[in-house]
């Protein structure tokens, strides 16, 4: 567990060195207003739904987003939470098997890059290609580490870990400071830890009592 967490932390720290927008802006090869637009999404609003046609890849300028899919009973299941400067969207490499929703957790400002442009620069531009490889591997590592914790840790240790991971502040699209953890429901935390929302609620009470006793 220690190795996986250290590896994830290192990759994430590298990811935040420069954002996609900064890398594109510092180059004189791109006319960004032609291939990018900015959007502001209200809290709880849908950015895209499974099966919808989207022609953009998104970069979070401020705010936070949750990604997920639907279970057998058509209930939403959250599997990732993103914030500045993460990117997300459908690259259309999965032959129609991409089945994801993206919802804003708070007022969120996005940069929407035309999909054809995004796919071209991550292949043709060595700097952007390196950025894409690093951020993709970082995301994989975070997902693998979460899965490892679900299988290897006790339920309370797993929940404590995800709480610590998501207990971070971000600036939303209106300039207000928000805590990502406070924007997530018990169900969201249950999805991320492989537990029911009832179990999450009970364990959170236990964790809070332990903090008060210290």
UniProtKB/TrEMBL annotation:
Residues 149-183 form a coiled coil. It comes from the Bacteria. One of its GO terms (molecular function) is kinase activity. Keywords: Coiled coil, Kinase, Transferase. SUPFAM superfamilies: cAMP-binding domain-like. InterPro entries: cNMP-bd_dom, cNMP-bd_dom_sf, RmlC-like_jellyroll. Residues 20-96 form the Cyclic nucleotide-binding domain. This is cAMP-binding domain of CRP or a regulatory subunit of cAMP-dependent protein kinases. It comes from Roseivirga pacifica.
């Amino acid at each position: 567990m220690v190795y996986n967490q250290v590896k994830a932390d290192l990759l994430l720290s590298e990811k935040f060195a420069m954002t996609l927008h900064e890398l594109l802006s510092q180059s004189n090869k791109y006319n960004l207003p032609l291939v990018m637009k900015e959007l502001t999404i209200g809290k709880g609003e849908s950015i895209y739904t499974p099966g919808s046609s989207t022609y953009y890849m998104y970069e979070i300028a401020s705010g936070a987003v949750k990604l997920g899919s639907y279970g057998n009973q058509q209930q939403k299941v959250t599997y990732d939470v993103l914030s500045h400067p993460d990117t997300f969207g459908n690259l259309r490499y999965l032959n129609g098997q991409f089945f994801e929703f993206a919802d804003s957790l708070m007022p969120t400002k996005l940069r929407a890059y035309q999909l054809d442009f995004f796919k071209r620069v991550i292949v043709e531009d060595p700097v952007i290609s390196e950025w894409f490889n690093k951020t993709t591997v970082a995301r994989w590592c975070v997902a693998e580490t979460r899965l490892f914790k679900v299988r290897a840790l006790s339920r309370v240790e797993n929940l404590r870990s995800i709480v610590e991971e998501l207990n971070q502040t971000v600036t939303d699209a209106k300039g207000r400071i928000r805590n990502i953890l406070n924007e997530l429901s018990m169900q969201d935390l249950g999805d991320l830890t492989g537990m029911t929302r009832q179990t999450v609620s009970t364990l959170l009470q236990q964790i809070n009592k332990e903090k008060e006793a210290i």
